Amino acid sequence: MNTPQISLYEPGTVLTVGSHHAKIIKYLTSGGFAQVYSAEISPPDAYSSANKACLKRVIVPDKQGLNTLRAEVDAMKLLKNNKHVVSYIDSHAAKSVNGVAYEVFVLMEYCERGGLIDFMNTRLKNRLQESEVLEIMSQTVQGIVAMHALQPPLIHRDIKIENVLISHEGLYKVCDFGSVSGVIRPPKNPQEFNYVQHDILTNTTAQYRSPEMIDLYRGLPIDEKSDIWALGVFLYKICYYTTPFEKSGETAILHARYQYPSFPQYSDRLKNLIRLMLMEAPSQRPNICQVLEEVSRLQNRSCPIRNFYLLRAMNQNAHLASESTSMAYIPAQQHISQHSFQNIKGMTNIVPLTNIKTAPNLDSVSKFMNNNDRIEPMSQLHTQKLQTDPNILNPLTKTKSVPLSDDFTSLYYKELHPFQKSHTFKSVESFQSPQRKYIPSSPPPINSNNYDRVSTINRPNNYVDSETQTLDSMATPNLKPSPITTNKTTSFSKESTVAENVTGGSIVRSLSSKLKRVITGESRSSSPTKSRQNTGDSIRSAFGILRHGFTGSSINNNRSTSFDNNNGNNNGNSVSRRLTSSSSNPPSSNFSSDTKRQEELDKKRKLEHRRSMPPSILSDFDQHERNNSRTGSRDYYRSHSPVKKSQTMPTTTARPTLKSSNSDINVNQDKKESIQRRVHNLLNNSEDSLGYKSASGYGKYTDTEAEKSNRQSSVRITPISEERFNNYHTSNAMSDHTSSNDKPKSRPPRPPPKPLHLRTKIPNTRCSSHLQSRRPPEERISSEATETIVDVNVDDLEADFRKRFPSKV
Ligand SMILES: Nc1ncnc2c1ncn2[C@@H]1O[C@H](COP(=O)(O)OP(=O)(O)OP(=O)(O)O)[C@@H](O)[C@H]1O
């Protein structure tokens, strides 16, 4: 790639960045295409009052690079002022004189104490104490909480030691939002497959990649649980100064196989937390709130946040209750049996929470989260049920609930609350108009004396291993004179319109524009915003992969350091098992309790959808899409896939609405009866404390057979051809149609078959992998807990679920 070369700014150089003047104090370091400086700013940051900031200067050669940076800036804006996220201050973009490249300036909070990696390197001999590990983990997790709490959630996708910085007060803060995305649903055609594959390769770090990222054939979404996996690797690394899969590579990642070093010694509970975060099945990993709850428990502290997943589930529950309440008062309700009516009456005591929506927004959630009293209006009956239902309150009953800390409050009120009034942000641009206040400063002459690389000097020999360090030489700033000057500025508001609502969704939309360009071939330039390890040039690479994908060429990815698969080391499994099994009271069930609750609700919704839809080969993927519609993944793919419209639109348009017309009395009656049954079942089920074993997570089923297949699968980071992709699905498609045709007309529609991507059929090509051949197929190696938890019959679960939560249609 043609990397624009730029000189360094001299100390004392004054720039205008948005509405701030920034006077360069000193050059700090360089990222991939970024120069990083400390600067004095005026006016001081409104939030922190600090007059010292970090200035990141990035050269991007084209608009696509600009868009990638815009996504990064948008993410920073969304997370601004969270105590554990490097806070955004201002930004600015300018066009170079030659009109080819752009220069982007981002002002952000300055983390004076450098990176976590620097701190770890000060402790090579005296490794971190468990209390220190927990503190780092707690604060980092709080930064990620801010992302996952958004609706739709943002996935960081590049959580690693190098992306945590330390502020002057000693707070740990998450940085580098250049890889952020929304939830990515499983690809459903070769183009999407190749795109997602390459996007993952270029925007994630090999050692932190989750199994579902490496093996896209699993058909699992890339969602918050992928971040949880990366956090598990992160936790392991702050404990042991190496990643769990450092030597064994992707094979070990795919089966969550690793060992715990014997030094340093950490408690079984801490190791068990790592084990849970590194569960092979995403649905078995804790969510971010549960991670923080457990870390807080280990710290013997109150958890600083409340479980928003749980609160959403409660909100959903209340919504169901209010729905049934309203139904109780319409005339057609008269036929309801006395028994049902009593149940309805019981439920009518529930005071509906304000503005409850089917998909609760952060407004309602934040009310929960910021004022405990908001929970009290719920009826005593309902509250009692929630308290006695281990599937709902288990995490909170074990952790003392406390009001949110100030920073979390500010997260919801100062940052997220405006999203509810999204119009406020309509005119906001990702970058301030550079024409407004930009004071061009001619590039200073090169002064190598300014070269003050804080992170590379005096590095001990046994420096903590990381990609950044191994590639450090590549980060050396280019000291050649810059061909780029910044004396011509251009407003980018027209050529790069920001999504109207500055929400997680806008980021997702912004990112989704990448795919559109890939498909339409709008432009083929590269995006330079990421470095050799963390490159964001997924647009260019996506073109590449599309080109190569069909020609069979291999992907050339400069960041994703391939693991040496020959180093596959299975020996650690026994050690791993021994250690994990020795942990006291593995809290899998604790972690999965409110997840289960969510899963139940998701499942219920899913079944409702399923029952209302004709089974088709596309239905499962479409179902995913609907499940993920809140997350913006629908935008991410549906709006940009070249095949989606012809394939999915008919399904979408043919989809019956769940709400039937009031004029249709029969339907209404069915519906009301169904609601009565559902409420009745809900009440019954909330009273029993059965440990409902759910194999689902985020609307996905975990199939034991699929698990077996997955274990037999191997790394498949190769472009997939159309033919191969189609072959993979043909047999399943046939069976889908057969099953739908066989269906007796008089019977209610059966739920569509199990999602295609979770079926066990694996194309023969998969078995030809060199990795596969090294391990006999019958050998099933996995972490112990995975086997225990995943070993459930999904059909039974579905049947049980249907029985407990009958569909209203
Ligand atoms: N807010 C900050 N305060 C202090 N130092 C910072 C800050 N932001 C970044 N840095 C330093 O600059 C380095 C590069 O920053 P960053 O990772 O954001 O750039 P990048 O171009 O995205 O790099 P990468 O190649 O890692 O993706 C960081 O590793 C860190 O040492």
From TrEMBL:
<dbReference type="GO" id="GO:0005524">
    <property type="term" value="F:ATP binding"/>
</dbReference>
<dbReference type="InterPro" id="IPR008271">
    <property type="entry name" value="Ser/Thr_kinase_AS"/>
</dbReference>
<protein>
    <recommendedName>
        <fullName>non-specific serine/threonine protein kinase</fullName>
        <ecNumber>2.7.11.1</ecNumber>
    </recommendedName>
</protein>
<feature type="compositionally biased region" description="Basic and acidic residues">
    <location>
        <begin position="621"/>
        <end position="638"/>
    </location>
</feature>
<dbReference type="InterPro" id="IPR000719">
    <property type="entry name" value="Prot_kinase_dom"/>
</dbReference>
<dbReference type="GO" id="GO:0000147">
    <property type="term" value="P:actin cortical patch assembly"/>
</dbReference>
<keyword id="KW-0808">Transferase</keyword>
<keyword id="KW-0723">Serine/threonine-protein kinase</keyword>
<feature type="compositionally biased region" description="Polar residues">
    <location>
        <begin position="644"/>
        <end position="668"/>
    </location>
</feature>
<dbReference type="GO" id="GO:2000369">
    <property type="term" value="P:regulation of clathrin-dependent endocytosis"/>
</dbReference>
<dbReference type="GO" id="GO:0004674">
    <property type="term" value="F:protein serine/threonine kinase activity"/>
</dbReference>
<feature type="compositionally biased region" description="Polar residues">
    <location>
        <begin position="461"/>
        <end position="476"/>
    </location>
</feature>
<feature type="region of interest" description="Disordered">
    <location>
        <begin position="702"/>
        <end position="787"/>
    </location>
</feature>
<keyword id="KW-0597">Phosphoprotein</keyword>
<dbReference type="GO" id="GO:0007015">
    <property type="term" value="P:actin filament organization"/>
</dbReference>
<feature type="region of interest" description="Disordered">
    <location>
        <begin position="461"/>
        <end position="497"/>
    </location>
</feature>
<feature type="compositionally biased region" description="Low complexity">
    <location>
        <begin position="556"/>
        <end position="593"/>
    </location>
</feature>
<feature type="compositionally biased region" description="Basic and acidic residues">
    <location>
        <begin position="594"/>
        <end position="605"/>
    </location>
</feature>
<keyword id="KW-0547">Nucleotide-binding</keyword>
<comment type="subunit">
    <text>Interacts with ABP1, which is required for proper actin patch localization.</text>
</comment>
<feature type="compositionally biased region" description="Polar residues">
    <location>
        <begin position="522"/>
        <end position="538"/>
    </location>
</feature>
<keyword id="KW-0963">Cytoplasm</keyword>
<keyword id="KW-0206">Cytoskeleton</keyword>
<keyword id="KW-0067">ATP-binding</keyword>
<dbReference type="Pfam" id="PF00069">
    <property type="entry name" value="Pkinase"/>
</dbReference>
<feature type="domain" description="Protein kinase">
    <location>
        <begin position="22"/>
        <end position="298"/>
    </location>
</feature>
<feature type="region of interest" description="Disordered">
    <location>
        <begin position="519"/>
        <end position="674"/>
    </location>
</feature>
<dbReference type="GO" id="GO:0030479">
    <property type="term" value="C:actin cortical patch"/>
</dbReference>
<keyword id="KW-0418">Kinase</keyword>
<dbReference type="InterPro" id="IPR011009">
    <property type="entry name" value="Kinase-like_dom_sf"/>
</dbReference>
<feature type="compositionally biased region" description="Polar residues">
    <location>
        <begin position="483"/>
        <end position="497"/>
    </location>
</feature>
<feature type="compositionally biased region" description="Polar residues">
    <location>
        <begin position="762"/>
        <end position="771"/>
    </location>
</feature>
<feature type="compositionally biased region" description="Polar residues">
    <location>
        <begin position="727"/>
        <end position="738"/>
    </location>
</feature>
